[in-house]
Automatic annotation (TrEMBL):
GO terms for biological process: translation. PANTHER family: CHLOROPLAST 50S RIBOSOMAL PROTEIN L22-RELATED (PTHR13501), LARGE RIBOSOMAL SUBUNIT PROTEIN UL22M (PTHR13501:SF10). This is Large ribosomal subunit protein uL22c. Gene3D superfamilies: Ribosomal protein L22/L17 (3.90.470.10). Coiled coil: none annotated. Keywords: Chloroplast, Plastid, Ribonucleoprotein, Ribosomal protein, RNA-binding, rRNA-binding. The gene is rpl22. NCBIfam families: rplV_bact. It comes from Hancornia speciosa. GO terms for molecular function: rRNA binding; structural constituent of ribosome.
Length: 156
């Protein structure tokens, strides 16, 4: 007897970049900054960071968002980077000719970058963030009272 599987809505999409010509450690330095952040915040961070690794990661994040909007019809404001990882790829090895007939090895490392994005509007665990924010009136009143009271600075 065959049983029907429950069809769950897909909440995650990914983009994979393979054989990107840079060291995995250099790409990891940027990936650690964007892991767990929202899509819009990630794009701003990647545009302003001065590292060479930012451009391929920017393209992957943009591609993952395009996959989410096409495959799941999700809004970009609801996307969060749930998983981002960098793995070592193959090392391209060449030999450079040197003086007196010698050769010098050149090793160019590559890496594989995976960006996984989650749509928080489709996930039951997440609650809308704006509803959790409540303005704290007591701090604002204490701030105003501090400058309106003239007791401390008027004494000579």
């Amino acid at each position: 007897m065959l049983k029907k599987k429950k069809t769950e809505k897909k909440t995650e999409v990914y983009a994979l970049g393979q054989h990107i010509s840079m060291s995995a450690d250099k790409a990891r330095r940027v990936i650690d900054q964007i892991r767990g952040r929202s899509y819009e915040e990630t794009l701003m961070i990647l545009e302003l960071m001065p590292y060479r690794a930012c451009y391929p990661i920017f393209k992957l994040v943009y591609s993952a968002a395009a996959n989410a909007s096409y495959n799941m019809a999700s809004n970009e404001a609801n996307l969060v980077i749930s998983k981002a990882e960098v793995n070592k790829g193959t090392t391209i090895k060449k030999f450079k000719p040197r003086a007196r007939g010698r050769s010098y090895p050149i090793k160019k490392p590559t890496c594989h970058i995976t960006i996984v994005m989650k749509d928080i509007s489709l996930d039951d665990k997440y609650v809308e963030i704006d509803s959790l924010k409540k303005p704290n009136k007591h701090i604002a009143m204490a701030y105003r009272d501090m400058y309106s009271s003239e007791g401390i600075w008027d004494k000579k």
